[in-house]
């Protein structure tokens, strides 16, 4: 069971809603088995002909993000707006100043996390994996820490694997790996490492069959979690026969 803020979830796969059509959202959620879906506030079109909120089932927890914020004050303002339109107290904090690599500003993210936690939000903090920053985020009231695997939207996989493992080992709040995961095998691997959940958007949105890829990620996350709970087998340098080598033709 994944516990975030005041809620518990069976699924450990969080689906990003950007980059694919509104008509596909409902079926993608179903195939992903997701209970949480992200929402860029800029996609909410209240009063328009097509409002993304109309395509998300009522039993799904919406995780709005502060995409577009370049400092803590802007992130707090976007979070307040998302609450005003009925998106609840969950908020994924994204504070990005860099426009080429889109790396998060860890220090402004800490400021936003503290402010929003004090306002009663459950902040999920998107960050570059740094142990000291992760500790500060947890102390500031983060409901989860979300380290990037590689630059957002790149599908380049677990470039920060070793640093994510440090966070998994040292940080007590849930670790949700976000950004850069490019295929289901990588999602499985990070869950085997002990991550609490995985969030994926681009790898699904850019697949030839979005619904089929959403299902593939669902199964990969489940397999990785089962493997983590089972405890991975040992690794040695020399061969070790799986059948006895003695007792033949005695």
Give a structural overview:
With 250 residues, the protein is of the alpha/beta class. The longest helix has 21 residues, at 210-230. It starts with a strand and ends in a 20-residue tail after the last helix. It contains 8 helices and 10 strands. Helix 1 (22-32) runs parallel beside helix 8, helix 3 runs parallel beside helix 4 and helix 6 (184-192) runs parallel beside helix 8. The strands form 3 sheets. The chain has a 5-stranded parallel sheet with strand order 5-4-3-10-9. The protein has a 3-stranded parallel sheet with strand order 6-7-8. It has helices at residues 22-32, 72-84, 106-118, 131-140, 161-170, 184-192, 202-205, 210-230, and strands spanning 2-4, 7-9, 13-15, 36-40, 61-65, 90-93, 122-127, 144-147, 176-178, 197-200. It is globular and about 80 Å long.
